[in-house]
Amino acid sequence: MDPHVWLSPVLAQREVERIRNGLSKADSAHAADYEKNAETYIAKLRQLDADYRRALGQAKNKTFVTQHAAFGYLAREYGLTQLPISGLSPDQEPTPAQMASVVKEIKSLGISTIFFEELVDPKVAETIASETGARTDVLNPIEGLTKDDKKQGLDYIGLMNQNLAALEKALNA
Ligand SMILES: [Zn+2]
Known about the structure:
By secondary structure, the protein is mostly helical. The chain has helices spanning about 10-25, 30-55, 70-75, 95-110, 125-130, 145-150, 155-170, and strands at about 65, 80-85, 115, 135-140. The site of zinc ion (ZN) has 6 residues, from loops.
């Protein structure tokens, strides 16, 4: 069971519809407001989806390495392959055998970038980067905000645009 539906801009639209339906049912006096706000937000998500589709559809490489397996829905949506260092939870440490197999695959695919997450210790990603000669960069699974994100006023759309820029760079390097 993969919980990371929010990282697909398409599935995020379905989430907004469900939230709208739930709120409208619980507070029917304001149903028109929920409808209007959902419409506005879904339009932003459609734009985000179009930007992802355009940028990633032309990517030279199709495989990206992540710290944990958060980007499966996103990868599937845009014809990419996620190569996760650990499993579905960010707290899971990879076994030495998993590490060795990831390193081998990175070398054979010539992958340029090892993504890590700001809220998780980057030690494993850094080890793999130094073993493979890849660089590291941040890909945010949006499972929480850092103090810095909050200070910059970054929201879901802002962070997803940062993720798109990072993926575009990694997949075209
Ligand atoms: Zn996760």
